[in-house]
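Q: What would this chain look like folded?
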Amino acid sequence: MKKFEQINKYMNPSKPKPVNKKSTIDFLPVSKFLQHTEKSYDYEVIVKFFASNHITIKDFYSDASYDEKCTVCAKKNWLVWRNDFMYYDTLNKCLINVDDDEELEDSPELEQIDFAVYVCSECGAWSTFISYNP
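A: My prediction, written as structure tokens:
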């Protein structure tokens, strides 16, 4: 028996393939994006980074130290994904997740950043913390 995708392809060959909504990271919807804290990059770059690295809500952990209330639902139940060794490629406008790499540190188009994404576990609103490390 053929898979559904194969059958659908033969039934509608001229119809464009639908966008896989899972690849846009369901738990970081643009409609629930709140803000950047400190330095700002396009939120699309962050969502694309999470999708291409297969980061899911399971990779987040409870952040009891983040005392801010959610501006949407007023709860304090934040989850965080944090990586202290991130680079932002200013030339290609993308995030790079690498271990300590001396070659990358000397590259003029890479900025080392302190990076975190916070998601409200109650309503799904999310924001980012991005700080430049010269």
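The helical segments are 4-11, 43-52, 102-105.
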